[in-house]
Amino acid sequence: MTLEMLIHYPDYFAAAVPCSEVYAYYVYARDDLGQYRTFYSQYIKTNEIYLTEDKIQALCQTPIWFVQAITDTLVPANEYTIPTYQALLQAGAENCWCSMYFDVVGTESSDTQYLGHWSWVYLFNNQVALVQNRDDILAADNDFFSGIRPNANGGTEYVTDEDGNAYESLFAWLNDQAL
Known about the structure:
This protein is α+β, with helices and mostly antiparallel strands. It has helices spanning 2-8, 53-59, 81-90, 120-124, 134-139, 170-175; strands at residues 26-28, 38-39, 42-43, 45-49, 64-69, 96-101, 104-105, 113-114, 130-131, 157-158.
């Protein structure tokens, strides 16, 4: 609901942090009864875009920082977060970021690996600090990851403020956002 709320109430939120964002980029196929069609338990996407240009423009108005692991099998990043993030950058979203982890490794027990959908582990342990390179994503030729390069740190660079000072974490960035 994060993106849905931003689309319908663009002046209400100072910023948003979608974690394993599940807002559909594509329209998914339905049968004659209106039920989603599946193939091996996966929804069948069409080539029709659901996240229209009007919706993208509404989202561009709000600072957004996406957090996800590429190993998320419940919400595949290449069907949700990645095309959405790339569309936002292509539309000119300036304060829009993405931390894409390869997998989810815990801190409580050394080297405990969690389900890829649990990228909130990084978020709620205040470990999100690095983001993907925006220029790589803008220059991508729509390959499978569209310029996203998942890694253990979520990215390779820090987000900076107006004075060029790096935010030490997503929460530091979030605290600096205002309407």
